[in-house]
Design brief:
The complex is a heterodimer of chains A (337) and B (210). Chain A is α/β, with parallel strands linked by helices and 337 residues long. Chain A folds into 2 domains: 3-184, 3-Layer(aba) Sandwich (Rossmann fold); 215-336, Rossmann fold (3-Layer(aba) Sandwich), CATH 3.40.50.1220. Chain A has 9 helices and 15 strands. Chain A has a 9-stranded mixed β-sheet, sandwiched between helices. The relative contact order of chain A is 0.11. A 9-stranded mixed β-sheet of chain B has the order 11-10-9-12-8-1-6-7-13, with helices on both faces. Chain B has a two-stranded antiparallel sheet with strand order 2-5. Chain B is globular. Chain B contains 4 helices and 13 strands. Chain B is an alpha/beta fold. Chain B has one domain (2-206): 3-Layer(aba) Sandwich (Rossmann fold). Classes of the chains: A alpha/beta (337), B alpha/beta (210). The A-B interface holds A 70-73, 99, 102-103, 106-107, 110-111, 115-116, 118-119, 139-143, 145-146, 148, 193-203, 208-209, 212-214, 240, 258 and B 11, 13, 16, 18, 25, 92, 114-115, 117-123, 126-127, 129-131, 134-139, 152, 155-157, 159-168, 171, 179, 183. Strand 10 of chain A pairs antiparallel with strand 11 (161-168) of chain B, so a sheet runs across the interface. Chain A: This is Electron transfer flavoprotein alpha subunit C-terminal domain-containing protein.
């Protein structure tokens, strides 16, 4: 029997996040034929209570060791095992397109003689009566300068169709359901693959790019001639936050050219941006449009940055930053205990 | 170390514009996929310090003309141009003529970018590896030889973490060097190696539908 399958994305093998709900939303959207909706969850430690609440008709879950879970080869083997156990169901298989799942989906498409469309940003179904297999997939091409609309060449409804969805479009609210089938599939011994996980480490603030960091510190004209940046560096170490800055900071030689933030530099999308001694010109604000929370420190209460910030601190950075460092250290020690 | 680098001819995305009068993409300047060129640069850097033989392989439509001179400025040993009909129509099948060309060659390492700059599919290297029965690992930003046949590769995970893996050769590795395009990894042309160059290029024609 034909089904729509979601290969449920799991963060670090242990957490369901908005990508999982986003993929389920896409699955519901294309399931115009009301085919059975099945979730395949390959994880390394999700809590058992979650299985009965997932919004699928059927849930099949497989547990791998944490180190195996990080390798696509183990996912391919686990999928093949599930596929075999549940009776070689054919249909549409939706994956997230991060590297681990992308590799898994493409390799499976070869093994099952199916077709694959990768990095989709949307899926359109022509009308509610159309077969689910006749959907059109929207993709970005030429670095997002154009879109293309593609569809599977084969109209054979028994074929395997794999689609990987760009993580950028996978978001959604947590959903709940009552699956009629919840089945754990034991798979203890994936064959030792030729790729092995070794270790995972955090990139230090000095190497981390300002465009990739969760927290970024920005410095500006206010630091000019103000002496040592030792406290700011200490804050950067504590928060693992790379130091960028405004155009003026670059011109004053406070930061390297590739750390300039703004319309003439990089645009950042950090969770937290700490602007120190930055007035907040329109060009600089353009570069922090994607930031979720802004903390501004400036001695001028009329600085435009205070219109953009979530927390504003009026004062000299030489006074404020040591207090901020002490507060972060104090909070860190509380968290550690 | 016998290294193969897959190079895809693409239209430069930086030059492409939408022609509103003709309602089509225009200003399609031919070039090569930059992530692939970065893979080639990495191979050339490796060759400077280790014994290595580099072969570049590219697949084109029979009526598509490509200028390979920029590729021959790298210190490569061989260049294989595979001509395959209907490539643009059945682009996910690019891996098939590659499999035919590479299956009998003893490459230790096949390098490419993880994705091309035109279609961003990321399918060809993975399919090639699957057909050749060797591992594939994508989005790699650092490669370090651990021993003769085991290499260590690093991939970013999330915003600020790096995962390290060990991979047995032979393998296909897709690089994620695109971020370093304008800075660290811009190609360094070293001139034609003696006795190499255009004479090393030969075409292989595959029938339609391959």
């Amino acid at each position: 029997m034909r089904k729509v399958f979601c290969y449920v994305p799991v963060v670090d093998g242990t957490v369901l996040n908005e990508h999982a709900w986003g993929l389920m939303k896409i699955a519901n959207k294309i399931n115009t034929e009301r085919l059975p909706l099945a979730g395949i969850v390959v994880h390394s430690g999700l809590e058992k209570e979650q299985w009965g609440e997932l919004p699928f008709d059927e849930v099949y879950h497989v547990r791998l060791e944490a180190e195996q879970w990080k390798v696509a080869d183990a996912h391919v083997q686990a999928f093949e095992h599930v596929h075999h156990e549940i009776g070689a169901a054919q249909g549409i298989y939706l994956f997230a397109s991060n590297p681990l799942y992308h590799e898994t989906a493409v390799r499976l498409s070869v093994r099952y003689g199916g077709a694959v469309i990768t990095h989709a940003v949307d899926i359109h179904t022509p009308n509610s009566d159309a077969a689910a297999s006749s959907f059109t997939v929207k993709r970005e091409i030429y670095r997002g300068k154009a879109h293309e609309y593609v569809t599977f060449r084969s109209s054979n409804p028994t074929s395997h169709q794999f689609v990987t969805m760009s993580p950028a479009v996978l978001y959604g609210e947590r959903m709940q359901g009552q699956p009629s089938v919840v089945r754990e599939i034991h798979y203890d011994n994936p064959t030792a693959g030729k790729v092995r996980f070794v270790s995972e480490s955090v990139i230090g603030w000095e190497e981390l790019k300002i465009t990739e960091a969760r927290c970024v510190i920005g410095v500006g004209r206010g630091l000019s001639g103000a002496g040592s940046m030792a406290d700011i560096v200490r804050l950067a170490e504590l928060l693992n936050a790379p130091i960028g800055g405004s155009k003026v900071a670059d011109e004053l030689g406070l930061i390297p050219r590739d750390r300039r933030i703004g319309s003439s530099g990089s645009a950042i999308d950090a969770d937290i941006y700490i602007a120190i001694g930055i007035s907040g010109s329109s060009q600089h604000l353009e570069g922090i449009k994607g930031v979720k929370r802004v903390i501004a420190v400036n001695s001028d209460p009329s600085a435009p940055i205070f219109q953009r910030c979530d927390i504003g601190i009026v004062g000299k950075f030489q006074d404020v930053i040591p207090a901020l460092v002490a507060a972060v250290q104090s909070e860190s020690s509380v968290s550690a205990t | 170390m016998n290294i193969c680098v897959l190079i895809k001819p693409v239209a430069d995305p930086a030059s492409i514009r939408w022609d509103y009068r003709e309602q089509r993409l225009d200003f399609m300047t031919p070039g090569f996929n930059r992530p692939d060129l970065h893979a080639l640069q990495w191979a050339c850097d490796y060759k400077q310090t280790h014994a290595a033989r580099i072969t570049i392989v590219t697949v084109v439509d029979p009526d598509q003309e490509i200028d390979v001179k920029p590729l021959l400025k790298y210190p490569v040993d061989d260049c294989i141009i595979i001509k395959c009909a209907n490539l643009s129509r059945y682009r996910h099948q690019t891996a098939l003529p590659l499999v035919q060309a590479l299956k009998d060659q003893a490459f230790d390492l096949i390098l490419s970018g993880s994705q091309s700059e035109d279609t961003h599919s990321g399918v060809t290297p993975a399919v090639l590896a699957e057909f050749l029965g060797i591992p594939y690992f994508s989005e790699v930003y650092q490669i370090d030889p651990a021993s003769d046949h085991i290499w260590q590769v690093k991939r970013k995970s999330g915003r600020d973490r790096v995962q390290t893996f060990r991979i047995d050769l032979p393998a296909v590795i897709g690089g994620d060097w695109v971020d370093r395009t304008e800075t660290v990894c811009s190609p360094v042309f070293r001139g034609l190696p003696p006795g190499k160059g255009i004479g090393q290029i030969y075409g292989r024609m595959f029938g339609e539908g391959t």
